[in-house]
Every structure is written in structure tokens, then in C-alpha cells.
Task: inverse folding
């Protein structure tokens, strides 16, 4: 059976983007998003659930996010799921599931109805595929 790994998210940033650069000079940003879901509960009342997701953005998209996005801004993300594991200094194993963005679209609009950003959509071609693509795990700034 073929495999398929594609994620589409629309939500709001819970904090300002965290822009960093790897030792090799590649820009990378962590975007923390909240995605809300409204539904009817068993009692018929409206309920709300929130899912918090970390999105990793590379290269030009990372720099644009760092320059134009801020806490509270709405964002559309197209990407793929990626899991990472590492060991802490005190030898504890940690793991995380995150989204690696392949395309982001800024949804914030200026007062005149136009986009506040120079690009409505930023796509990445040839973005690193994980720690090995950027050198070593020590290059990852998060």
C-alpha cells in the first residue's frame, strides 16, 4: 500500500515566530499554532476543543514568517508530519511530533483589505528533510 503524509492546518499563532539560523546559515523558524474545533456535545450545547501544534518552517518561508507574523495572526499551513527523538543531558529520551511546512499562507489583512505581507503564499522547494539534511542534530536550533 502506498504511503501519504500531508497535513493542512488553519489556525492562529500562540506566540511570535522563533527565527534562528543553523550553524550552516539556513534560516529555520518554529511557529506555535492553535487550531480550534467547535462541535455539539452530548447535551446539545456547543463545545470547543483546541489543538496546539508546532510547525517548522525553513529558508525563505522562515525569514518571511519572522518578519511579518506575530502572536495572534491567522495562518494556513500545508506540510507533512515528522517525528523526532533525542536524548537530554540527563539521559532522558524525548520525542515530538511536529509539522514541517512545505507551504504557508499568511491570512492577516491590512486595514485597506490588502495583504500586509509581500507574499500571500510562500512555498519551499528543496527544504531540508530533517537533521541529516542540515548537517547534524547539533545544527537544529530547537
Result:
Amino acid at each position: 500500500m502506498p504511503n501519504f503524509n500531508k497535513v493542512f492546518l488553519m489556525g492562529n499563532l500562540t506566540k511570535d515566530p522563533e527565527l534562528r539560523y543553523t550553524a550552516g546559515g539556513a534560516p529555520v523558524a518554529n511557529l506555535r499554532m492553535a487550531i480550534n474545533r467547535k462541535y455539539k456535545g452530548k447535551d446539545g450545547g456547543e463545545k470547543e476543543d483546541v489543538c496546539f501544534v508546532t510547525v517548522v518552517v525553513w529558508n525563505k518561508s522562515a525569514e518571511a514568517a519572522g518578519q511579518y507574523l506575530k502572536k495572534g495572526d491567522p495562518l494556513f499551513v500545508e506540510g507533512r508530519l515528522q517525528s523526532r527523538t533525542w536524548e537530554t543531558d540527563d539521559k532522558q529520551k524525548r520525542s515530538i511530533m511536529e509539522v514541517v511546512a512545505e507551504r504557508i499562507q499568511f491570512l492577516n489583512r491590512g486595514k485597506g483589505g490588502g495583504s500586509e505581507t509581500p507574499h500571500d503564499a510562500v512555498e519551499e522547494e528543496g527544504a531540508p528533510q530533517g537533521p541529516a539534511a542540515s548537517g547534524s542534530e547539533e545544527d537544529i536550533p530547537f
Notes: Helices lie at 59-68. The two ends are 34 Å apart (CA to CA). Confidence is low (pLDDT under 50) at residues 111-121, 125-142.
